[in-house]
Amino acid sequence: MTLEPWKRTMWILWFGVLFCSSSYTMSIPFLPLFLYDLGVDKSSVNLWAGIVHSSAFLMGAVMAPLWGMMADKYGKRKMVIRAGVSLAAIYALFAFVETPWQLVGVRMLQGFVGGFVPASMSIVASIAPKEKLGSSLGLMQAGTMTGGILGPLFGGTLAELFGIRHSFIAASLIILAASVAVIFWVKEGNSPAAKPSEGSGVKKLEPYTYRMAFRNKGLMGMLLVLVVFQLSINMIQPQLALHIADLGGEKGAMLSAGLVLSLIGVAGIIASPVWGRLGERKGYYRILVFCLLTAGTVVCMQYFVEVLWVFAAVQFLFGLFMAGVVPIVNTLMVQNTDEQFRGRSFGLTASANQFGSMLGPLLGGLLGLFLGLNWIFVATGVIMMFAGLAIMLSRRRTESIKSPIRSS
After folding, report:
1. Measured between alpha carbons, how far is 224 from 216 in angstroms, rounded to an integer?
2. Which of 5, 40, 147, 151 could form a disulfide with 18 if both were Cys (CB 3.0 to 4.6 A apart)?
3. pLDDT of residue 16 exceeding 70
4. How many degrees, rounded to 5, is the angle at CA 350 between CA 109 and CA 266?
5. How far apart are CA 145 and CA 229, in angstroms?
6. Among 261, 225, 237, which Cα is nearest to 365's?
7. Contact at 8 Å (CB) between 270 and 322?
């Protein structure tokens, strides 16, 4: 059975984002433990972990709109290839870092050239039929989650056996392989919103600008949700490897961290397509609110956990509900933007992701320094629950305004 062209392209890009995510998660989550090798004292490692984690996102937040604009102008496929080849070179640089500040510098370079996953998502959003949009983006999110499984397992095993610097080299080769696959097998083709021919009687569309996008309340609302969600997630993300080492002991910490971190990826593979299909049937906003409220409640439970296997189980449960947020937001973002703005809109979502991911580690590092790691779990959960409640109240207010007023 021959796949439809759009499905063939989607599956190639699915493996591409899987490889991209694998290369990221087999190296970056272990950077806090790598800081010990670079001479960072245990008393300041939490703060350094936050700085290292945030540095890439600072650059990424600035650059993402530019890469999105270039994707609309020069083609999304070219942006995927550009990001992949550049990241391959930068992952290799991690293997030669000798000081914490060098590590920060390379992370900033990583943020500067990023954009592989947003550009891939943009291609899929442009080629997928409207009725398949939610499930297609959910499937792509599952691809990133699959990489989230393989990366920590492979990276943790390599780091334990050969040292973490070998993980960086392996990550470089993996993202390079993803780029080569896109070069040879992905053809972007014509956008569904092709320009009308002269004399066709179809009015030419006015160019969609960033100024128009900022007046789009639906798009701006989804960008704000992404900022808040990524801020909350990344408050705890840089500290997880250190927390797992505290729960399970420093011996074999790399492998233990890899196994536990991969559980979120397993949960994502299971849940992401399901949330996309539920959104198509039940309503995207309803599913988004449910995922935020439930994920926030679950992550708060980590405050009471002091045993590694219980921590791993709660992480898995958290991953099931967390996996629904990003694909639902991406779908709502696509529904609220014009086709000709698709690359730039995904650039804005990437910028929102990066901005939240930059603020989160800094806030989490400060909380960890002054209050302890368990309070970061509580703060993460509370922020997510407030985000869910805010969306629910906003939708109710909007629906009450739209509904006709009944006479008594």
Report:
1. 12
2. 147
3. yes
4. 95
5. 16
6. 237
7. no
Cβ-count burial 296-309 (b if 16+ within 10 Å, e if not): bbbbbbbeebeebe
Are 254 and 159 spatial neighbours (Cβ–Cβ below 8 Å)?
yes
C-alpha 79: how far from its chain's center?
17
Helix%, strand%, coil% for the chain, nearest 5:
85, 0, 15
Only one residue has tokens 């449910």, namely 290
How many Å apart are CA 199 and CA 97, to the nearest integer? 60
The conformation of residue 206, written as its DSSP 8-state character, comes to P
Contacts of 59 (CB under 8 A, 6+ apart): 108, 109, 110, 111, 112, 354
Tell me the C-alpha distance between 230 and 378, whole Å. Answer: 15
pTM above 0.90, yes or no: no
For 282, half-sphere exposure in the C-beta direction (CA atoms, 13 angstrom radius) is: 13
* pLDDT-based confidence at residue 373 (cuts at 50, 70, 90): confident
Residue 232 has pLDDT above 80, yes or no: yes
- 396 or 294, greater pLDDT: 294
Taking a C-beta distance cutoff of 8 angstroms, is the pair 298, 236 a contact? no
- Nearest CA-CA partner of 46 in 280, 194, 242: 242
Q: What would the pLDDT profile of 52-66 be if each residue is shown by its tens digit? A: 877 887 888 888 888
pLDDT tens digits for 326-343? Answer: 889 888 888 877 766 767
Phi, psi of 400 (to 5 degrees): -70, -35
